[in-house]
Amino acid sequence: MVIHTIGALVPLSRPGWVEAGHHLLAGLELAVRDVNASGGVAGRPLRLEVRDTAADPDRAAAAVEELAGLEVAAVTGEFHSVAARAAAERAHALGVPYLCSSAVLDALTGQPTDSVARLAPAQSHGWRVYGDFLLAAGHRRVAVATQPSLYWASGTRILRDHLAPHGATVVELDMSALSPEALCAALVEHRASALLLLVGHPEPAAPIVTSVRRDPRLAGLLIGAPAGQPELPGWAELLGADGAAIPFLRYLPERPTPLGRRVGSALRDGLGRAPSFVAFEGYDAILVLADALRTRGAAGAWPDVAVEGTRGEIRFSRVPGIGVWQWAWAPVQVADRDPADPARFRVLHTG
Description:
By secondary structure, the chain is of the alpha/beta class.
């Protein structure tokens, strides 16, 4: 039997964010099962060929090379922006269709390409929505706890450029040189009203949260995590009540679609816990590739895609400043965990 093979890039080992990888893979696998249960694509089933990137750019690029050698119909997945960028560059060089499900770095490739498309909103879009949330809440002195990374540097620049015209300042605090306790002292010195965690999880994000929550000088400080760390259950399990009331970005509609409700229920059963937006991104990625294969006989025909995903209708277009085909845009929320019930989410802002 002829099979459509889809390569899947997923962070399943450290230093990748393994929990996000499991949610992404759960969405990919569920969608493959659902497509196959409905007859496949023109009578041909889909099959996943999974590769663990461990969030490593070299491993991601090598995986694309290997999957191209296996003549996969397309490659999809990847959560970490730096690994996704390496995968996208290799896919462009090889002419392999690559649908990035979850990474947001604007410059996913160094040049425009027709080989690559993306579902997740570009960082410049989502993080400006987060900046609007900060401004609406009255924050004008914002600190970012950060680590050396293209992704974190890009996020800091987006926030600074967006907030500055409104009279807000952004001060960078390098966590490669500061302990959590020293960070607390710096926050007091700078009179910050908000601290954004632009750092890895669980280290050093969790110790930072614990230190800030325990410091009486910082009782009124907002802690935020635009990269989405509080979305996944491991955050609440690690931090408990300390992990609540920390606003983050996630890419879900305010009200789920009928498909979103059905898929969400199936994902919950499979994961044994509530699915994150990353799982829905994985599911939608397979729906897009199946639609492209069904309508054009090949993946990569991004302008022709029109599919009802779990979070709304998905179409791709060219967006100024972004070199890949982009869904503009997936729904964007700023949400947090409810202090009264950390298992429950509150939507604070939409964009």
